[in-house]
Amino acid sequence: MLQRRHLLATLTSVAGSAAMGLSSARAQAAAQTSAQSYAAFLDSVRTQALAQGIAPSIVSQALALTRTPNASVLKLDRHQPEFTLTWAQYRDRVLPESRFAKGRSVYGAQQSVMSPVSARFGCDDRAVMGIWGLESGFGAHDGTYSVIDALATLAFDGRRSAFFRNELMKALQILNDGDIAPAAMIGSYAGAMGQAQFMPSAYLRYAADGDGDGKRNIWTSEADVFASIANYLGKCGWQVNEPWGQEITLTKALDKTETGRTRQRTLAEWMALGVRRADGTAFSRRDVKGAVVQPDGPGTQAFMVYHNFNVIRRYNPSDYYALGVGLLGTGIVSA
Asked: Rounded distance, CA 28 to CA 40, Å?
């Protein structure tokens, strides 16, 4: 009996070891297959880039930055938070007083550079400061990922491969233009680049040279960052010296069907419905058109938003984001 138990234990151990060995072999084979597939994918990218006129040396330098799919990028892309913040929660998270204080200090140091650049590209400092502050903490956090590695990983992954492959090819075009070296092209896990957090397609369309050196460096040149953000908003229809919006008071509740950024009325019409400025006084310009936005619903904070609010949404199509940019930029520049 004892011998039989020893025999069974031995057989079990051998079987277990064999199973583990088989599992390990399968994992290694899968990894090898994946590596071969990724190498083939990169070869196809190389062929496409060369056909589009990208210099062979640039293609080689860039693709040398990615050897295997980046596991961190895939994890972040597949496990994005699904919870929904209220406007009040979002406001408290992205607009702490410390961010206003830092912004005022930074603006004091950068205003002499920013103001003429903003004006030259058809924008103003409020919007530039608001976007710069939300996108990268006024340049403090512009990402840690190689843009080429991140975009190649996401283009290979398949979930949105066509979109990210297109962005990857545009990133290679940027490198070919010589604005930044391949290793210095860093950004978010999704490929948004530099202090302005432009995707490569947005960069090619809107990035601008603010310091006159012939390059568009949104990574380390503040003047180029300001010029690029201002140019983006300017080309999207920013109206200089016009407000984005303002907080308001409602003397009586509005029906939910009357609110929302697309439901515009003149300020005279809104006043007839009980809408007032935040301090309770009447609006000074009665003919201007605006819309009431009340993100958290009746009885909560409300805003009158104008044309420039919708221009900010061209940068990021979120009411929360546009409100955050407007409040931050106004709170810094108008302080």
From this structure: 18
